[in-house]
Amino acid sequence: MELYRSHVLVCGSTGCVSSDSLKIIDLFNKELEKHGLEKEIKVVQTGCFGLCEAGPIVIVYPEGSFYSQVKLDDVPRITEEHLLKGLIVHDLTYKEPGKKEASDSIDDMGFYKKQQRVALRNCGVIDPEILKEYIAYDGYAALAKVLTKMSPEEVVETIKASGLRGRGGGGFPTGLKWEFTSKAEGDVKYVACNADEGDPGAFMDRSVLEGDPHTLVESMTIAAYAVGANYGFVYVRAEYPIAVKRLQIAIDQARENDLLGEDILGSGFSFDMEIREGAGAFVCGEETALIQSIEGRRGMPKVRPPFPANKGIFDKPTLLNNVETFANINQIILKGADWFAGIGTEKSKGTKVFALGGKINNTGLLEIPMGTTLQETIFEVGGGIPNGKAFKAVQTGGPSGGCIPAEHLDTPIDYENLIALGSMMGSGGMIVMDEDNCMVDVARFFLDFTEEESCGKCTPCREGIKRMHELLDKITEGKGKLQDVDKLETLAKTIKKASLCGLGQTAPNPVLSTIRYFRYEYEAHVNEKMCPAGVCQALLQFLVIPEKCKKCGICAAKCPVNCISGVKGKEVYLIDQAKCIKCGACLEACPFDAIKKG
Amino acid sequence: MPKETMTAENFQKLDKLILQEKETKGALIQVLQKAQGIFGYLPIEVQQKISKGLRIPMSEIYGVVTFYSQFNLEPKGDYMISVCMGTACYVRNAQPILEKISKIIGIKSGETSPDGKFSLIACRCIGACGLAPVITVNEDVYGRLAVEDIKGIIEKY
Fold first, then answer.
1. Per-residue pLDDT of chain A (598 residues; tens, 9 = 90+)
2. What is the pTM for the complete model shown?
3. At what angle do helices B58-67 and B44-54 cross, to 10 degrees?
């Protein structure tokens, strides 16, 4: 094996690839060759480092220097200064928000300090397309242990004892699911992985698939051994091409090396798997709908019971877990149930990956022990709110979750606490909003999503969400009445109770939680016909600032309804509020910033 | 106008595809995905051929095609502009960006321009939240956008 004195890690995940990280890798290789360093320094394409905000990211080891938003022009400089002369290029390394000096090493960065990486342990560390790198980090050791030293029952007991709960949404105890499937009767059983990560703003599953695909192959094989299955499916969103490609590479490599297929590692146990790509339907994240979709049908949920553990894919007993859940399995096997159960809170064990986004300095992926508070997550790991704006709410759980206001920021994150606040864990999307976001508009945004994604099978969801959406449209357009807010609440509670599947049962959460915590904003829209955050177009006013107006008449010429009057060169222009349709054309057209909205 | 894809050659490819997948359990969605890869969209003729080949009723095939957002019944423009409407992009002002593009090209979300050059959609989260707000034009990704950047991007195509 060749030894290198230094490694240059470049993120090859979707976010960084979108900003040219692959070209950066090519250029580094060329530069290293130019300086004759190609035998001393190795460039590695890794998975996600987590701090997507700073992408494309390059980390140079052994120093751990974290270069952020690297441009192609920076590559020759980093090569000459850092790799050749050993001098860290300080003006290119990452400077944390609020700090004066750049951090010299990744170990000093606030973003990573509170994190504990279990599911993401290999993301940003290994090259996901090279099996040997995975093996070097204890890859497939858990599978070997299970196949040679443990009975299927022992595996199920270990997972049960760990306290691991499903990371895809509901938080059902994983070990119990395994036990149900293992005890279900049937000669053919399946293991399936839900990688249909549909929550807008959540990308943890994608990052595991892109950064560490072998962990999924290994864990699914362990699960198959535990429940007695010989075939598996991974259902991936079609919107994730890089994830699909890398997972396929991992499956092929595992097959070639006796880690998948007939007689795995000479143990006599056989298991194989295939990828099924989704075709764009959020509801397919629901387990019964996902199974329908794997079978090639419309992804419409079914009544449970029977549960998939008894009657799943092609009516056979099926174990279905999500990507992040599987990513914990091999670590639990290797380090023991007690180790895992020692992390987190009483009822929520282990760590959780969150995709932090929206109005936050450190957009990205982070993994924290359960029980970390929202405050620590947003302000310490996340680095707080940009541009000196005030925090308003954090939305967790995607379209199924709710908005949590500032007064609850000291809540430790776990399944039960989030539900008590009217939100939920969901798959781990965490969107931060500041004072400029209108909560009524945010609720409307989520209903817009769930209305479109409702499969239409049951009436409360199909019709109820549509009616709620109409009421919210009315309110954001300034046509709402105070009774409409009560009507929204009544409808929401009915939909929650009467819907068939998780989509409908949770779709009203964004509305209920915003009414609960931000009722005054609804009331301002209704009573004062005003949007306090200045978002809802219909409630805005466009005004000419007389001191700034240069009397050029450009605004009047652009106005589609001729509601701006004035005399060119002589008179300040004036907008007739009664006729104005609030299209904003004047604001955009004015070259002197003399029009404001408020 | 968009390229004519209903050629004999493409139908031969479809026949081959159907033959390959005929025995696979639950293969319909995969066959439709690959067929759309060949033709660019899924006109009724293609669906009928798949129906006969896989022995699945037309009603079921049409049901699947219209259920999933990935499948198109109409041909799309040469350049597909997708504006990410994931939550992270939305709270970072993706809506005004969609409106600006809509205004420049003169089509609404979900439409294709009459010359077949552009299609515009508001798409689901593409997971590049660090770059929010994001748009993609075919394979090209543009992130951290402001409304002022849009004109320059469209002019490239």
1. 578 999 999 999 888 888 889 999 999 999 999 999 999 999 999 999 999 888 899 999 999 999 999 999 999 999 999 999 999 999 999 988 878 888 878 888 889 999 999 999 999 999 999 999 999 999 999 999 999 999 999 999 999 999 999 998 789 999 999 999 999 999 999 999 999 988 888 889 999 999 999 999 999 999 999 999 999 999 998 888 889 999 999 999 999 999 999 999 999 999 999 999 999 899 999 999 999 999 999 999 999 999 999 999 999 999 999 999 999 999 999 999 999 999 999 999 999 999 999 999 999 999 999 999 999 999 999 999 999 999 999 999 999 999 999 999 999 999 999 999 999 998 899 999 999 999 999 999 999 999 999 999 999 999 999 999 999 999 999 999 999 999 999 999 999 999 999 999 999 999 999 999 999 999 999 999 999 998 898 888 888 999 999 999 999 998 888 999 988 888 899 999 888 888 888 988 899 989 988 7
2. 0.91
3. 120
**Mutation test of the interface with chain B: which of A392, A431, A433, choosing the one with the most B Cβ atoms within 10 A?**
A431
| CB-CB neighbors (< 8 A) of A278 in chain B | 68, 70
Tokens 């530069």 belong to which residue?
A31
Helices within A272-400 (DSSP H only): 287-294, 323-335, 337-341, 374-375
* Same domain membership, residue A513 and residue A383: no
| A1 is a domain residue | no
Q: Sign of the CA dihedral A578, A583, A585, A590?
A: positive
Last residue of a domain, one of A313, A341, A369: A341
Q: What's the pLDDT at B1?
A: 44
Residue A125 forms part of a structural domain: no
Q: Give the closest of A54, A206, A358 to B127, CB-based.
A: A206
Q: What is the tally of helices (H) and strands (E) in chain A?
A: 24, 17
- Is this complex's ipTM strictly greater than 0.85? yes
Contacts of A457 (CB under 8 A, 6+ apart): A300, A301, A500
Interface touch A357/B132, C-beta < 8 Å: yes
- Domain count along chain A: 5
Among the listed residues B124, B104, B122, the one whose alpha carbon sits nearest the alpha carbon of residue B113: B104
Tell me: pLDDT of B3 over 70: no
B145 touches chain A (CB under 8 A): no
Domain containing residue A16: CATH number: 3.40.30.10
DSSP string, A167-203: TTSS--BHHHHHHHHHHS--S--EEEEEE---STT--
Query: CA torsion B50→B53→B55→B58, rounded to 10°?
Result: 30
* Amino acid in position A257: N
CA distance A464 to A457: 12
Q: Which domain holds residue A96?
A: 6-109
- CA separation for the pair B83, B88 (Å, rounded): 12
Report B:99-128 residues touching A (Cβ under 8 A). Answer: 123-128
H/E segment holding residue B153 = helix B150-155
CA-CA distance, A385 to A433, in Å (whole number)?
9
With respect to residue A356, please indicate whether it lies within any of the assigned structural domains: yes
Residue A533 maps to a domain? no
Same domain, yes or no, for A273 and A197?
yes
3-class SS string, A237-262: CCCCHHHHHHHHHHHHHHHHCCCCEC
CATH code assigned at A557: 3.30.70.20
The CATH code of the domain that includes A360 is: 3.10.20.600
Query: How many secondary structure helices (H) and strands (E) does chain B include?
Result: 7, 4
Select from A210, A158, A209 the least CA-distant residue to A324.
A209
Q: Which of A18, A68, A196 to mutate to test binding with chain B, by most B CBs within 10 Å of its CB?
A: A18
**Among candidate residues A341, A369, A386, the one where a domain is terminated:** A341
